[in-house]
Amino acid sequence: MTESAITDQEFALFQRLIYKIAGISLSDAKKVLLVGRLQKRLRHYQMDTFTQYYRMISSGNDPDELQTMVDLLTTNETYFFREPQHFAFLRDEILAKRRNPSKFRVWSAASSTGEEVYTLAMLLADHSETAWEVLGSDISTQVLAKAQRGHYPLSRNEGIPPDMLTRYCLKGVRSQAGTFLISPALRKQVSFHHLNLTLPITEDIGKFEIIFLRNVMIYFDIDTKRKVIGNLLPHLLPGGHLIIGHSETLNGIESGLSQIRPTIYRKTA
C-alpha cells in the first residue's frame, strides 16, 4: 500500500482536533511529523486517505483509537536530569532549608516516559529528610505505560550521576542486556496518573510543594496556558514552587505566582 499524502484541508482538521483534545497548537511545520506518525494507522486500517481516518477517530465510536492518535502526536523527547539547574535548586534551596516534618510531595505534570519522575525520586531519596512521594501525569497512556515499567535502554542513562546509577538502577543481564531498570525501592514511591491538564482535575491527587511543568507549554497558546495554570494551581501549596522549562514563559498570565528566578515561580497565596 502506497503512502497517503495529506491535503491542507485534512491537516487543518487534525490541527483543530488535537487542539480541542489536548490544547496543542500544531503548527504548519508539523505536517511532516503528523503524516509520519499517523501513516501507520492508515496502513493498519487499510485506509487510502487521512479523511477516512479523521472520520473514524472524530466519530466518538472508537475512543481507544482516538487515544492512540493522541499518544502518537504528543510523545515528546525527555531524558534524565534534563535542565539540571532545576534539580540543583530543589536540592540546595528547598530540601536543604526545609524544616517541615510532613511528607514532601512533588508532581511531574507532563512526565512523558518517566525520566523526570525518576530523576526527582533519586534526588529525594538522597536529600529529603522526611518521607516523600512523586506523582507523574501525562495525557499519553503509551508513555505512562513505559514510565510505570521504569525500564530503559542503557543509552538513556546519560546524565545520571555514576553513584546514583549504581544505587538506583539495575543493569540488565542475559535477555535484558543493554537495558537498565529503576530499582523497586524507588518505583514503589512514585505513581502515575492519566491526566489532561487542559481539563479541570477532578481526581483527588492532593497538594504538592513543587510542580514541574516543563517543556509542554511551548505547544500551547496563551489561552491554553492560562487554563492549564488555573487547573494546576489549586494543587500547589501556598509558598510552593512551579518550575517550567527554560524555553517557556508565563508572561501575560495573571496567576498568583511570583517569579523568583527565570523559569521558577512561587505561589504567593
Task: Offer a quick outline of the entry.
This protein is an alpha/beta fold and 269 residues long. It contains ten helices and ten strands.
What profile does the largest beta sheet have? 7 strands, mixed
Compressed to H and E, one letter per element, the order equals HHHHHEHEHEHEEHEEHEEE
**Low-confidence stretches at least 5 residues in length (pLDDT < 50)?**
none
Q: How many domain units?
A: 2
Q: Strand sequence of the main sheet, in spatial order?
A: 6-2-1-7-8-10-9
Shape: globular
Architecture (CATH level 2) name of the largest domain: 3-Layer(aba) Sandwich
Name the structural class. Answer: alpha/beta
What does this structure look like?
This protein is of the alpha/beta class. The chain has two domains: 8-74, Chemotaxis Receptor Methyltransferase Cher, domain 1, CATH 1.10.155; 84-267, Vaccinia Virus protein VP39 (Rossmann fold). It is 39% helix and 19% strand. It has ten helices and ten strands. The strands form two sheets. It has a seven-stranded mixed sheet with strand order 6-2-1-7-8-10-9, covered by helices on one side. A three-stranded antiparallel sheet has the order 3-5-4. It is globular and about 60 Å long. The N and C termini lie far apart (59 Å). The relative contact order is 0.12. The model has no long low-confidence stretch (mean pLDDT 92).
